[in-house]
Design brief:
By secondary structure, the chain is mainly alpha-helical. The protein has a single domain, classed as 3-Layer(aba) Sandwich (Rossmann fold). 50% of the residues lie in helices and 11% in strands. The protein is built from 4 helices and 2 strands. Strands 1-2 form a two-stranded parallel ribbon. Helix 1 runs parallel beside helix 4 and helix 2 crosses helix 3. The chain is globular and about 45 Å long.
Length: 92
C-alpha cells in the first residue's frame, strides 16, 4: 500500500467514524466510557480518533484532557470540533 492509499483509507475511516456517531449504541458507549472516567482531573485520550469521547470528557468541570492520535486524517476531523478555549499542539 502506498502512502497515498493509506492516507485515503484513513480519510474514509474518519468519515465512517463521523457516521457512527449517529448510532445510539455508539453514543451510549462513549457516554459509558466518559462516566467511568468522570472523577479524574486529568485524562489522556490515546487514540482519540475524531474526538467523540474527548469532547465529552472535556465537558467535565476543571478537567484537563490530552487527546492524541497518530493519524492526521482523524485529527483533521477532531481539531475543528474542539472547544475554542483549547490550544491544539501538533507534532511537526
Amino acid at each position: 500500500m502506498t502512502g497515498f492509499q493509506a492516507e485515503e483509507l484513513w480519510r474514509v475511516y474518519a468519515h465512517v467514524y463521523e457516521l457512527m456517531e449517529r448510532i445510539s449504541f455508539v453514543r451510549d458507549q462513549h457516554a459509558r466510557h466518559v462516566r467511568a472516567l468522570c472523577g479524574l482531573p486529568v485524562v489522556l485520550d490515546a487514540g482519540c480518533g475524531i474526538g467523540s469521547s474527548t469532547l465529552q470528557l472535556a465537558e467535565g468541570p476543571r478537567r484537563k484532557v490530552l487527546a492524541l492520535d497518530r493519524d492526521e486524517a482523524m485529527l483533521r476531523v477532531a481539531l475543528p470540533r474542539r472547544p475554542e478555549t483549547d490550544t491544539p499542539r501538533q507534532r511537526s
